[in-house]
Design brief:
Structural class: alpha+beta
Largest sheet: 4 strands, antiparallel
Strand content: 15-25%
Helix content: 25-40%
Strand order of the largest sheet: 5-8-7-6
Bound molecules: zinc ion
Shape: globular
Distance between the termini: 29 Å
Oligomer: single chain
Number of strands: 8
Radius of gyration: 18 Å
């Protein structure tokens, strides 16, 4: 029996393979190098498709902050190509508007650019990637309403202790320059044994630490969210 990790239900008939993380994170130019190595998980086609627009947004919005890295530069070429289509153009305009070089009317040094992100779309995709990585490393499924939170760090500023702790973990990315991740279960710490930590590094630029509660967690947060 094949289970879709996105809805938790059995897949009858056609199985779609979903990339974890989204394939678009890897620029087209380097796909030949990594062909056949990326993680995929079985899903329903409809479940997979329901994330497409938010994934496009995520890759372009977050990726547009990484154009000073080698992989980010290659990704920018992909963005320019998609911006030639009308739908891609709308997305490009939306992302352009997220850049604010003069927040509050003050000009910042050119390496410090203020940019906003859509919190709902971003959370939805980080949660999806986290659930995919969780399924991949534990062979279990996390529901969409699992206890979840994440923090985003850019390359500026002092790394937190949690960030340093995650950075010390084993690098698990297929092509770490584009996407790398570390994983830590917390079984050795009794008071947080129900948590799983994922450190993710996108395009050598943006770092996310995501915390998920185990699928059978009964902590207060999870009991509340599962009651509705
Ligand atoms: Zn499904
Ligand atoms: Zn919990």
């Amino acid at each position: 029996m094949t289970i879709c990790y996105l809805c938790g239900k059995e897949i009858e008939g056609n199985v779609s393979r979903d990339h974890v993380p989204p394939k678009a994170i890897y620029p087209t130019d380097l796909r030949p190098e990594i062909r056949g190595q990326l993680i995929t998980l079985p899903t329903h086609k409809s479940c997979n498709n329901s994330y497409k627009d938010d994934e496009d947004y995520f890759v372009q919005s977050w990726g547009s902050t990484a154009i000073d890295t080698p992989v980010g530069k290659a990704l920018f070429e992909d963005m320019k190509r998609t911006a030639k289509h009308s739908q891609g153009q709308r997305l490009a305009e939306m992302i352009y508007d997220e850049f604010d070089p003069m927040p509050g009317g003050i000009a910042l040094p050119s390496h410090l650019i203020q940019k906003s992100i859509d919190p709902n779309k971003s959370r939805r995709i980080i949660l999806k990637i986290t659930r995919g990585l969780f399924s991949y490393v534990t062979s279990r499924i996390l529901t969409n309403d699992c206890g979840f939170s994440y923090q985003l760090h850019d390359a500026t500023g002092k790394p937190s202790d949690l960030l340093k702790f995650m950075a010390e973990g084993k690098s698990r990315g297929v092509y770490p320059q584009a996407f790398d991740y570390t994983y830590h279960d917390c079984t050795e710490f009794p008071e947080i044994a129900h948590l799983h930590l994922f450190g993710m590094h996108f395009w050598q630029k943006l770092t996310v630490v995501a915390v998920v509660h185990d699928s059978d967690c009964t902590c207060e947060v999870c009991s509340k969210s599962k009651l509705g």
